[in-house]
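Before a colleague's protein record goes any further, I have to sign it off. Would you go through it and say whether the fold makes sense for this chain? Take the sequence as given and treat only the tokens as open to question. The record follows directly below this note.
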Amino acid sequence: MMIEKILFPVDFSPSCVAMAPFVKKGAAMFSAKVTLLHVLEPPSSGFELYVRPLREVEEDREQVARAKLDSFLVSEFLPPASSRVLRMGDAATRIVETARAGGFDLIITPTHAGVFRRMLLGSTTAKVLNDAECPILTTQHAEKIVPMPLEHREWVCAIGLQADSERVLRYASQLARSVHANLTLLHAIPSSKPGMEVQLDLEERVQSAERKAARRRVEELQRKVGSNARAIITVGPIKDGLTEAARTLRADVLIIGRSTQPVAQGSLRDLTYAVVRDAPCPVLSV
């Protein structure tokens, strides 16, 4: 398992400028090449079409966008080592299509401050999380502040106990091993008690039957993929358990699974959005 090609969607915003050192560090960590993608979306106003032909308007817009893309973050991503792609249409759709057609191994995208954190559903990033087939690395940050550095020391992988968990664990284990990261596994047991605070199993206390069963299943998964990572069991709200554990462990990256099954469009995807929105560190969803 290798990350050789990274897709970096850009819209020329301060968020993308702030994200550049983060993407550059990720590319260096994996010895990967970066492609900058800008999607030129349809104009929001049709006023100009009253006085100019549509083809002429589109050609002018495309020329302006191409010039901006060619000059954007040039010092950070020097051509020809880093390529630049201009597409037209819906941003999320074109990002997913480009990632699939180009065989990209990873999409790195900023989660814009403000609106994104208050209303993730409906955003471009949320649509990409829904539809992209490759892993996606996101991080929260303010518009003009570089996001938390992407390091390779403490990584946390959240796993369930279903069949897809083996894929997620295998990916996380191989990736962490490739960059010499210390990997901790985290399984969250949802609580039936509303309002219950998160309980982190950090001290190996006496285990309930449910915790023991979960730990046996995690150990079984680890044997299958050849992993010997430390495993932690939490009890409480799942999203809060994942984000609190990442904060307590001072994780550099939180890895979570995105199911490829169509039935996952409900609460599981909502959980993915919530974790990406509230995690204290970059989130790699696979």
